[in-house]
Write a structure and sequence with these properties.
Oligomer: single chain
Number of domains: 1
Low-confidence stretches: none
Number of helices: 4
Mean pLDDT: 88
Structural class: alpha+beta
Helix content: 10-25%
Number of strands: 20
Length: 333
């Protein structure tokens, strides 16, 4: 019995020593990383760093962290940032953000507020911080910019999975509900009360190829840039309208997309009826839109469905012979 008690006590002391060493090593690694960023000219600091969670977890809390990259002009700060992981599984990390965060770019300042925001990160390589799978979940999302746009969502889940076909290929999935705000004008539907109704559900399934794998160098140095994007399916449903899209785009080094995205719109006549009730557009303009869309839908053989192939060529977006405007630049800042 005494022998067993001695073994238990010895094992407990060894584990306590291992936990203390792990906590100290993690604290030193974080401090050294911030020191390295400051040496490169970053704004990088925090007011306090605490690690708790004995005996099985390393629960890290950074108080008042700030990061600013002078090269890109990106800046982020928050009241705190928390990381949780088990000592016996350092490759799995849980991150929790505060209810309010601030971002800034050379062009605008953005405030992000959430009722809850957390992520689960499974790393393929801990030393390089290379993610194998990431799941980000938010509730009560509100993004507000001083450039006069905002975006809200009741619930949003974004997942990223490193593909088995290549280290720099990622499978992205988005599922969002109750989305309102920064929508393109041509789908800015107005409800009967004069307000824009939320998107009931927005989903997307994307294969994204980057110029290099995501790892710690993406934060410390240059961000990998998109090379190709396959939109397997995107689907949005709101106010009686259903919109689906699929297609493939190649992305040039300057961020210009080249390829085609086909958009299928169902119940478009209901959308026009809502616009007539809103009074935003004149009856003459709506009659011209109705006539044009009726011709297009007739080509697909289904008068209630529109099949719209959007071509991305020479930096422009084309719908058949009609040039709609400049193509968006697809790049990571």
């Amino acid at each position: 019995m005494k022998r067993l008690t001695f073994i238990v006590i010895a094992a407990a002391l060894l584990w306590a020593g291992f936990w203390a060493w792990s906590a100290s090593a993690q604290k030193t690694a974080i401090a050294n990383w911030f020191d390295a960023r400051r040496a490169e000219g970053w704004a990088a600091d925090y007011s306090d760093l605490q690690i708790f969670g004995f005996p099985n977890r390393l629960d890290t809390t950074l108080t008042a962290p700030r990061l600013g990259d002078p090269e890109s002009g990106l800046f982020w700060e928050a009241p705190f940032l928390q990381f949780f992981r088990f000592t016996y599984n350092p490759a799995h990390l849980i991150t929790v953000w505060p209810n309010t965060q601030s971002f800034a770019t050379p062009d605008e300042a953005i405030t992000l507020t959430t009722a809850d925001m957390r992520a689960s990160l499974e790393m393929a390589d801990v030393s390089r911080w290379q993610p194998q799978r990431v799941i980000l979940v938010t509730e009560g999302l509100n993004v507000a910019s001083d450039a006069n746009w905002d975006l809200t969502a009741d619930v949003m889940q974004l997942s990223l999975q490193q593909s088995e076909t290549g280290d720099a290929i990622y499978q992205l999935a988005l599922d969002a509900r109750g989305v309102k705000g920064a929508l393109p004008g041509w789908i800015n539907i107005t409800g009967q009360d004069g307000n824009q109704p939320p998107i009931e559900r927005l989903t997307a399934d994307i294969d994204l190829t980057l110029s290099a794998p995501l790892d710690r160098s993406a934060v410390e140095n240059a961000r990998p840039q998109p090379v190709a994007l396959r939109l397997n399916l995107a689907d949005a449903r709101w106010s009686g309208l259903t919109l689906a899209a699929a297609g493939d785009l190649d992305i040039t080094p300057s961020g210009t997309p080249v390829g085609q995205i086909t958009v299928k719109v169902r119940n478009w006549r209901d959308m026009l009826a809502k616009e007539r009730k809103s009074g935003r557009l004149s009856p003459r303009v709506l009659d011209q839109i109705d006539f044009t869309l009726t011709l297009i839908s007739g080509l697909s053989g289904n008068p209630s469905t529109l099949d719209l192939p959007f071509d991305f060529t020479n930096g422009k977006i084309w719908l058949g012979p009609l040039m709609l405007g400049d193509a968006p630049r697809i790049s990571l800042p």
